[in-house]
Amino acid sequence: MRDLHKSYGNVHAVQGIDFEVARGEVFGLLGPNGAGKTTTVEVLEGYRERTRGIVSVVGHDPGGRPRALRERVGIVLQSSGIYRHATPRELITHWAGFYPAPRDVEEVIDLAGLRESENVLTRKLSGGQARRLDFALALVGDPELIFLDEPTTGFDPAARRAAWETIRALADLGKTVLLTTHYLDEAQALCDRVAIIKDGRILAVGAPAQLGVGASSRYRVSWRAEAGELVSRETDDPTGLLHQLTSAALARGTGLEDLTVSRPSLEDVYLELTAEVADEEPSR
Amino acid sequence: MTAALALTWRQYRLERTMFWRNPSAAFFNFVLPLLFLALFGAIFSGSQEDLDIIVPGIAGMSIMTTTFVALAMNLVFLREQGVLKRLRGTPLPSGVYLASLAAHAVTNTTIQLSIVVGAGALLFGVGLPQDWLMLAVFVAAGVACLTSLGVALSHAIPNFDSAPAYVNAIFLPVIVLSGVFYDAEAAPTFLRDIAQALPLTHLIDGLSAAMVSGAAFSDHLDDLAVLLIWGILGAVLAVRGFCWEARRG
Questions:
Q1: How many angstroms away from the CA of A83 is the closest CA of chain B?
Q2: Which residues of A touch B (CB under 8 A)?
Q3: Who has the most CB within 10 Å: A60, A218, B117, B132?
Q4: Do A85 and B92 touch (CB under 8 A)?
Q5: pLDDT at res. B60
């Protein structure tokens, strides 16, 4: 995808986004609400026409929503509305009929973790179970590429972990995954590469660990001082600093409580990159 | 082509299965018109003249509930829930989907009309339809017309909470004006003029001729023409306004 632009009237939701996702990669679009993540993904999915730019998804232009493209991608939307008076098993079986070479229904039910709720009407499913059904329906056509738009927003921690497991399982099957999220830990836990996006522009792209390193080569050392407050200091030379700290502590005959040494996390980079615009206007 | 038909059949089967599991849909489609038939049948039980009006009237109303009302409500619900958007992301062709919805509505209409016609013959002394072919033609025209108008209406409804208000604001005046419950000819002139513009009036006219009076088909071609005009208008609006996604804001 090159130089993607999308405007609604005078609102430029996406202004010049470029990225490429390799086969088998889990790629994340990370950014605050209203950054243009969903707009970008919906252009790729064929739901929205782009204003300009060149877009290719598994070799097709998604603009005309060609059926050949729809047969090769699976989509998990932000909202998980589904027929209320059918069961997961019925829906997965039905969805399988849409695709030329679907996966085995039983396998998909197991993969998505729906075995216990396969015969429950969908209106009785919990949020987490409904999300599993979303994954199952996106997966049953055996797509090469799966879009996940904020797959765990609004989930409790247990449901999030379960969703992460499913997403890792998709990656293990060799699927290419493009996900959007505004959770840093999610991007860090799941993605091979992340693009940080804000106000319709990409601010940085790279592996989560590299993004941290790239922004700064400094280490952060923190510990609890004698007065009880947490002190942290950034340094290029963690060995030297630690030596000073530990010798001083040993000399005093006290311990260093809560001592940690960390690299700048994705979170630090993210906050640094998105900070300058954060005060201007509340995001949508 | 065979594949498309097979897919339509699959989608149709799913729609049927889900329909019977949804008590409120079954109620609106089947029970309400039959309740009206029973009530008005009891009220007018002494007067064959009135029964001859109410039975085709309820038949026309049934066509409207199983197509117009059901589709408008259902499509708004599916759109606002994001089901339409989800389907649009699959390889299911739009035409296949819409054909299966139409087939689903036609099945409901057929079941409903069979009950109304049967009850008319067995319980209300209306007798079996005089002209089966004419009945079939008018039912087909009514279904096509009211289906497309129902789809068109769904575009005008902003969200699901307001759907019953929009649908009833049209449905209730229309069934009263169109002479479901009385002979539309007996109404005051200005009401009669409004009624003459409504498709249901002409549908009931045609049904009445086919079921009760046995009037010649050629005398009712104007009724068919009105249904056709409304049907074309509805189809244009239905296709042009079709929206797969929930409205924002």
A1: 7
A2: 45-47, 65, 67, 70-71, 73, 75, 77, 79-86, 90, 94-95, 97-99, 121, 137, 141
A3: B117
A4: no
A5: 94
User: Would you write out chain B's pLDDT as a tens digit for each of its 249 residues?
Assistant: 788 999 999 999 999 999 999 887 777 777 888 888 888 888 888 888 888 888 999 999 999 999 999 999 999 999 999 999 999 999 999 889 989 999 999 999 999 999 999 988 888 888 888 889 999 999 999 999 999 999 999 999 999 999 999 999 999 999 999 988 877 777 888 888 888 999 999 999 999 999 988 888 888 999 999 999 999 999 999 888 888 888 654
Could you say which of 3.40.50.2300, 3.20.20.370, 3.30.1780.10, 3.40.50.300 is the CATH number of the domain covering A2-212? 3.40.50.300
Residue in A with minimal Cα distance to B20: A85
Instruction: Transcribe B138-197 into DSSP letters.
Output: HHHHHHHHHHHHHHHHHHH--SGGGHHHHHHHHHHHHHHHTTSSS-GGGS-HHHHHHHHH
Instruction: With respect to residue B246, please indicate whether it lies within any of the assigned structural domains.
Output: no
Q: Is residue B170 part of a domain?
A: yes
pLDDT tens-digit map of B149-191? 999 999 999 999 999 999 999 999 999 999 888 777 778 888 8
> Minimal Cα distance from A71: which residue of B?
B91
B144 belongs to a structural domain: yes
Are A99 and B91 a contacting pair at CB < 8 A?
yes
Residue A168: exposure state from Cβ atoms within 10 A (0-12, 13-18, ≥19): middle
Q: Which domain holds residue B9?
A: 2-240
Q: Which residue of A has its CA nearest to B75?
A: A83
Chain A closest CA to B60's CA: distance in Å? 29
d(CA A135, CA A166): 8
Average per-residue pLDDT for chain A: 83
Which residues in chain B touch residue A48, judged by CB atoms under 8 angstroms apart? none
Is the CB of residue A44 less than 8 Å from the CB of residue A178?
A: yes
Selecting from A77, A121, A137 the residue whose C-beta is nearest the C-beta of B85 gives A77
B 86-125: CB under 8 A from A: 86, 88-93
Alpha carbon of A192 to those of A147, A187, B141: distances in Å? 15, 9, 58
* Residues of chain A found within 8 Å of residue B18, distances taken between Cβ atoms: 83-86
List chain A residues with pLDDT less than 70: 1-13, 212-217, 264-266, 275-284
pLDDT digits (tens, 9 = 90+) for A43-89: 889 888 888 778 888 888 888 888 999 999 999 998 878 999 999 99
Q: Which of A89, A42, A131 is nearest to B89 (CA)?
A: A42
Which residues sit opposite A178 in a β-bridge? A27, A147
Cα dist from B80 to B3, B66, B161, B243, whole Å? 29, 21, 10, 10
C-alpha to C-alpha distance for B55 and B126, rounded to whole angstroms: 8
Q: CB of B153 within 8 A of CB of B166? A: yes
